[in-house]
């Protein structure tokens, strides 16, 4: 549904920015708001991939559009960054009854009135509580989403999702004590993506070994590429609750078929 709506909105004349808002200046939308950041060097006409990123608890979208590990990745890769503002600086991701999924769809629809969005390259991301909200969003409205890029947060692996993104990429720290690492039965470290493996019909795990973006942090990657629909990637690291340096940019590069770079 969201992909169809975005395609329809491509026919509407565009303006330079939503109500003059950009970066730290919030875009009003009813009784709520969001932030948007266009990439550097954009010509004002070329359709843009979108990273819809949900902020962490007690934060707002102004933090997202100024964050070097989020905005620093999008603005140099030709990606439009969209950061909704949660009610009372948080998100209601606990059940499918949340109003925040509808709000996020309204945000994307409003952005599409002002920017030429590429409906085939809608990426949904989030960190901590925002990551859990990103999971909830694609669980309820993910059929038009190209990829979920989630960091350190999820909903219950037993949820019955009505929709799903084409691709899932999730990063989590083994020592996370804020959004605890969701260890599976008998110490199964692949459990953090059990929901999507089941939903997308994935079969055999394929360990990809250790890799790193920066020399001081090593991640261990496992992929499920033999799924009935889509793919799943899990990146684990030995640290705690944070966005790994360069991780978001690395995923955007891989999704675009480019050789990944840092920053």
UniProtKB/TrEMBL annotation:
- Its main subcellular localisation, reduced to a broad class, is secreted
Which interval of the chain is the signal sequence? Answer: 1-18
Task: Give the keywords, sorted.
Answer: Carbohydrate metabolism, Hydrolase, Polysaccharide degradation, Secreted, Signal, Xylan degradation
Subcellular locations according to the entry = Secreted
Q: What role does it play?
A: Involved in degradation of plant cell walls. Hydrolyzes the feruloyl-arabinose ester bond in arabinoxylans, and the feruloyl-galactose ester bond in pectin. Active against paranitrophenyl-acetate, methyl ferulate and wheat arabinoxylan.
Q: Which family does it belong to?
A: Belongs to the faeC family.
Can you name this protein? Polyhydroxybutyrate depolymerase
- Organism whose genome encodes this protein: Ruegeria spongiae
Source taxonomy: Bacteria, Pseudomonadati, Pseudomonadota, Alphaproteobacteria, Rhodobacterales
